[in-house]
């Protein structure tokens, strides 16, 4: 059931996306997110549609939403500070593999669970702190998503990709949820 709180959260996300795009374009007064689809939001959607060759309706249909998100995503990736993988083992050749245990494995599992709702191919895993078969399978799928060598082992590049994604999207509503593709 689609609740009023979910609707407002989705509108707030849309407004944040549009605001970030407007800021990149140098708008003097970018849209202020308030979770209400009022005249200012409709005007911002129409402006976006006009600028991007979409039918100018003022509603955020699938094509409009997809195009807004596609323009928003590279902007926020550029906003993110470089990720510091402080719990990852410091040696250059360190890796986490099946059988490993501890806080670093728990961190990998948490980062995988951040990715799971965003990528249907990455399954959520139990938070056990043990690098088990579920964790290995999820790491393999995440590596495929991030275009990394698919080994099932978390080395520094896999850790950095997961950490960057987690830092960027941990508190964002997954696009498939917004589009009703659950």
What are its keywords?
182 residues, mainly alpha, two-stranded antiparallel sheet, 7 helices, 2 strands
Structure description:
With 182 residues, the chain is mainly α. The protein has a two-stranded antiparallel sheet. The longest helix is centred in the first third of the chain and has 21 residues. The radius of gyration is 19 Å and the shape is elongated. It starts with a helix and ends with a helix.
Radius of gyration: 19 Å
Overall pLDDT confidence: 83
> Count of helices?
7
Strand order of the largest sheet: 1-2
Following the backbone from N to C, one meets helices and strands in this order, namely HHHEHHEHH
Q: Please bin the fraction of helical residues.
A: 40-55%
Low-pLDDT regions:
81-85
Largest sheet: 2 strands, antiparallel
Shape: elongated
Question: How much β-strand is present in the residues?
Answer: under 5%
Q: Which secondary-structure class do the elements indicate? A: mainly alpha
- How far is it from the N-terminal to the C-terminal residue, by CA? 12 Å
**Strand segment tally:** 2
Could you provide a short overview of the structure?
This protein has 182 residues and is mainly α. It has helices at 4-24, 39-51, 62-79, 103-115, 133-145, 156-169, 175-178, and strands at 95-96, 154-155.
């Amino acid at each position: 059931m689609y609740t009023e709180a979910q609707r407002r959260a989705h509108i707030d996300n849309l407004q944040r996306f549009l605001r970030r795009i407007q800021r990149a374009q140098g708008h003097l007064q970018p849209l202020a997110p308030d979770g209400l689809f009022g005249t200012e939001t409709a005007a911002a959607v129409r402006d976006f549609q006009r600028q991007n060759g979409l039918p100018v309706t003022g509603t955020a249909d699938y094509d409009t939403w997809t195009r807004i998100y596609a323009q928003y995503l590279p902007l926020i990736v550029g906003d993110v500070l470089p990720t510091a993988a402080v719990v990852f083992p410091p040696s250059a050749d360190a890796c986490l593999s099946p059988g490993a245990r501890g806080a670093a494995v728990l961190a990998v599992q948490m980062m995988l669970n951040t990715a799971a709702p965003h990528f249907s191919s990455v399954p959520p895993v139990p938070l056990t702190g043990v690098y088990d078969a579920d964790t290995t399978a999820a790491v393999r799928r995440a590596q495929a998503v991030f275009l990394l060598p698919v080994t099932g082992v978390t080395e520094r590049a896999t850790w950095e990709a997961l950490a960057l994604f987690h830092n960027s999207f941990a508190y964002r509503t997954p696009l498939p949820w917004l589009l009703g593709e659950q």
